[in-house]
């Protein structure tokens, strides 16, 4: 069981880092409180490419966009200028999410070296620290999402920056961000922290109380020898 723990746990940790990096991290839904406008936007989005009501981004895609620059080169403002109201939240979240992934890497390394109960308890403590960082990420992201939904970020300027479709930018005049949430990439890492904690507790229990097959012993019949006089 000790060997199984030292193999399975690092695999879980490595998988969490990969999922956190490549799965969708943020989900934004645009729409209107008016149902007729919502129906119109949905109808237009099905007819024209580049107009969507749901936008999802992974950490990998965000980094790729930052490196490649804006999709619309004729955009009047940079991303930093458009996102100025939430820039402090973006930076805080980025730092916390990187720490979260680094903690997961540390969990994997410690688990690979965990050949004693004391070291496995250390894995639990570090995983719990990862959960605390995760909760901090949720608090920061909720602050940024509230500002986006309240309209602090100009949606038209943001869409103009991310898309060169003039019709998509025009559509933002009648819609707003109705929902902004963390997505699968974040919650995959969050969930695996919890899974590793539970797995470590279960492993410690099995190592201390190994499951053994009950053995039944049969009494052998004693052969008596009769001594004739």
Task: Outline the structure in words.
It contains nine helices and three strands, in the order H-E-H-E-H-H-H-H-H-H-E-H. With 229 residues, it is mainly α. The mean pLDDT is 81. It has a three-stranded antiparallel sheet with strand order 2-1-3. The longest helix is centred in the middle third of the chain and has 33 residues, at 117-149.
Tally of extended strands?
Answer: 3
Shape: elongated
Order of helices and strands: HEHEHHHHHHEH
Radius of gyration: 28 Å
Uncertain residue segments: none
Q: What percentage of amino acids are in beta strands?
A: 5-15%
In whole angstroms, the N-to-C terminal distance is 62 Å
Report the average pLDDT across residues. Answer: 81
Strand order of the largest sheet: 2-1-3
Query: What characterizes the major β-sheet?
Result: 3 strands, antiparallel
Number of helices: 9
The helix-and-strand class reads mainly alpha
Assign a percent range to the helix content.
55-70%
List keywords for this structure.
elongated; three-stranded antiparallel β-sheet
Q: Could you give the topology of this structure?
A:
Blueprint: H1 2-22, E1 24-31, H2 35-47, E2 54-58, H3 59-68, H4 79-82, H5 87-112, H6 117-149, H7 155-162, H8 166-171, E3 176-182, H9 184-208
Antiparallel strand pairs: 1-2, 1-3
Helix pairs in contact: 1-5, 1-9, 5-6, 6-9
């Amino acid at each position: 069981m000790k060997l199984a723990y030292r193999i399975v746990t690092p695999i879980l940790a490595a998988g969490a880092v990969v999922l956190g990096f490549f799965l969708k991290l943020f989900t934004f839904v645009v729409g209107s409180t008016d149902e007729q406008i919502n129906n119109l936007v949905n109808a237009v989005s099905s007819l024209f490419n580049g107009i969507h009501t749901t936008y999802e981004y992974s950490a990998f895609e965000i980094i790729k966009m930052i490196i490649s620059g804006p999709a619309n080169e004729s955009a009047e403002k940079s991303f930093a200028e458009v996102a100025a109201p939430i820039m402090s939240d973006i930076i805080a979240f980025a730092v916390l999410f990187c720490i979260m992934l680094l903690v997961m890497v540390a969990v994997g390394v410690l688990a690979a070296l965990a050949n004693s109960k004391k070291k496995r308890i250390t894995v639990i403590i570090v995983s719990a620290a990862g959960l605390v960082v995760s909760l901090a990420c949720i608090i920061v992201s909720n602050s940024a999402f509230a500002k986006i939904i309240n309209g602090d970020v100009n949606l038209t300027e943001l869409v103009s920056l991310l898309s060169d479709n003039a019709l998509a930018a025009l559509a933002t005049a009648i819609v707003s961000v109705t929902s902004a949430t963390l997505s699968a990439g974040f919650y995959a890492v969050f969930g695996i922290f919890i899974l590793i904690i539970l797995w470590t507790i279960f492993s410690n229990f099995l190592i201390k109380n190994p499951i053994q097959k009950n053995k039944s012993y049969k009494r052998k019949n004693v052969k008596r020898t009769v001594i004739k006089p």
